[in-house]
Amino acid sequence: MITSIERIVEEYHEKKIDIDTLYNHVLSIIEVCDDDQIRRKYIFSLNKIIPLLPKIKRSSLLEYLEQLLLSEINPAIKITTISVLQSWTKNKLLNPLKWMLQHETNYECLVSIIKSLACLESTISKKILLKELKKIRKKVFMDEKKQIKNIKYRQELKKLFENKTIYALTPEKLADILINYHTIKILKEKFFSVYYELEKGCVIELDLSDVEYEVRGWKPEFKNNIKSLLEIPGLENLKYLRRLDLSNNQIQSIKELLPLKNLTHLYLGNNQLQDKANIKWINKMENLRYLEIIGNKIADKKYIHEFNPNMEILIKRTNVPTFS
Fold first, then answer.
1. For the chain, which residues make up each domain, given as ranges?
2. What are the two backbone dihedrals, phi and then psi, of residue 63, each rounded to the nearest 5 degrees?
3. Three-state SS across 85-151?
4. What confidence tens digit (pLDDT) does each residue in 225-258 have?
5. Fold of the CATH domain 192-324
């Protein structure tokens, strides 16, 4: 039976074990445990243990974590390891992150790597991010195997590099562009028919409405059939998004849209929004100015007074603004 991390730390503070025992116990669990959730918990706990270690042991542990970062297969373990290293050794994190950026394929891991590079705020980290964007500019396909073309990002990045505005951007903004690119890539891989518009490299409009007619003749798995916003990978990372079309799906809750602070236009027609809690979530979207909720139970006229009065709300079919 594995002793909980809380208990082993408590035993150290109670002076029942020494620092070497604590250190060796934690490392042994990380190395041999088959349960990745437990391993993640122990890795995260190192934030509390590292300050207790003498300088030599601390240095040894951080080097061990750097090696773990490069050898680990589980994406969740990698992300947790990055977070610990970022807290304790930013200077040594640059080379592992640079290597991982070239070899990592998991979306969540890539986002974590890119965000960590931006946090380093060094000349070298900025050069790494710029180099990655230059590579994307040259890519004909986002996904060569699936023949997903990279037309819009090539055009957008060509413009940003040619007018040299991209060189004035902060590492954080460069990271945003990279994360937006990888988010669109994974959305294209999952839903195939995804429509979007860019502004300064970031997605400002996204259409994930039902594409049954657009993909007629294609494989049926290309049809959008979204039941939950949790099925849309990386949606929360599109923080510059202003227009979002999720019409003709089976969505029941829009709570996950709250992180999208810049949304001004939201199209939710013909979903399954029945719970009045959705009205509360909608009203929390401070910049939302236009809402389409045709074909949902919350579109009943008896609820209209509960919506933010500053919004234009479409509850029945009239002349609908086109989604550009």
1. 1-88, 192-324
2. -65, -40
3. HHHHCHHHHHHHHHHHHHHCCCHHHHHHHHHHHHHHCCHHHHHHHHHHHHHHHHCCEEECCCCEECH
4. 899 999 999 999 999 999 999 999 999 999 999 9
5. 3.80.10
* pLDDT value, residue 320: 44
Coil vs helix vs strand at 38: helix
Which two three-digit tokens encode residue 265? 């236009």
Residues of the chain with pLDDT under 50: 212-222, 319-324
Report if pTM > 0.70: yes
> Over the range 59-96, which residues count as b (16 or more CB within 10 Å of their CB) and which as e?
eebbeebbebbeebeebbbbbbbbebbbebbeeebbeb
Average pLDDT, the chain: 89
Phi-psi map region of 295: left, alpha, beta (phi>0 left; psi -120 to 50 alpha): left
User: How far is it, in rounded angstroms, from Cα 28 to Cα 47?
Assistant: 17
- The pLDDT of residue 223: 54
